[in-house]
Description:
This protein is an alpha/beta fold. InterPro entries: Aldolase_TIM, NADH_flavin_oxidoreductase, OxRdtase_FMN_N. One of its GO terms (molecular function) is oxidoreductase activity. It holds the Pfam family Oxidored_FMN.
Amino acid sequence: MSQRYATQDVDVSPLGQPLHFEFSQRRASNRFLKAALTERMASWSATELPARGIPTPELINLYRRWGEGGYGVILTGNLMIAYDQLEAMGNMIIDLENEFSGGRFEAFQQLANAAKQHGSLVIGQVSHPGRQTEQRFQPNPVSASDIQLITDQAPYAKPRPASMDDIEDITRRFVHAAVYLQKAGFDGIQLHGAHGYLLAQFLSQTTNKRTDQYGGSLENRARLTVEIAQAIRAAIPDPQFILSIKINSVEFQAHGFTPDEAKELCEILDRNGFDFVELSGGTYEEMAFQHRRESTRMRESFFLEFADRITPALKRTRSYVTGGFRTASGMVHALNTVDGVGLGRPICQECRLPKDLLAGTVQSAIEPKLDPQNFILTGAASGAHMHQVGDDQQPSDMSDEAMVGVYMQCLGQWVQKVQEDFAAMTFTGYPRLPKGHPYQVRPGESQPWEISGYQPKTGLWRFALCLALVPSIMYFVW
Length: 478
């Protein structure tokens, strides 16, 4: 029997209430949001750029399982808009040259269809890393200004300030991705304006030192985001296509984005027709995914106290907060502040967690026997779980100390391979755990590997490893 987080019984019915989006007139079936994760399970080639970023059968299957999990909204993970501007190897990619036909497009169609089978709204989170792409991927990155990212992990090149041509190209790429997603069957797009990625680099005074119309006041720093949103609306006449954004509620660093600025930004987003805003926080320099005070621990969410100050600015735009939720009690109480709750790390081991919470069969997530403050350790475990689900294996129980021991051995092998492969760039994914039991299918769910009769890969591929020790693993601390 899995060990779960201690909690108090609570009426979960508020989490099951539908949520209406004012601008698109769409409705989410409940208040659960599957937060974006960096799955790193798309196709990859170190040398052939057009071979990168295509959803694989394993990735499609993972979204099929999340689609069975009872989420009102499912967000995809960190989808890139250029072959050589990446958060990590294995990101999904929609490049400007990608047409609305062919194998890549069909794979995106399959992913959307798999995730929507049980009524979830499926939204593609689209991002440009800006200065937060490793030097080995892009030696000449673009950003709001020429402020270099310095970390103790992977090296990042000094960026160049975006020219007007760069800004036009960036906008065109976001718009193309939105149209691509809409034609592939997605219900909407989320602009990634948090965690220090390009849009956040324009929004934050720590990285935006511009003196033109894209710098200075918050209205100017938000100009690129607003222009992209307006261009998407112009390119997609369908009013039911959802437009959303993820933003930082706080950055926890000197001169960083503040809750007061987030509140002002939300007023701008509301005026510009964003259906919902997802509140998060932190940057590569200052990770935010831990409980900094006892007050946040008691409320579970890392960012709920900042949401208290921000959400009153929203009139028609709905709000979600992501980060730290583990119990039904914490999630229900969060609805006093926001409209919905985002889940990430726990749902890698329990794809059906929302369904089980609403059914009353569980009151909290499985509690892994791992240091919850070590987001690298727990994030890599979440990645291992995603590989297992993608291969239609039952996720290993990380509340079992014996299984944690197996995981730690795999993690050690992983780190060694990561170091050996750094220059070659041939390994993608996360630590691979030994093959276990088949995925435990419930009534009404798809049988394992129904999609095109595909069978999971075996052999050496099972030990493919990735760069978990870079800060981009921050996606998994939720």
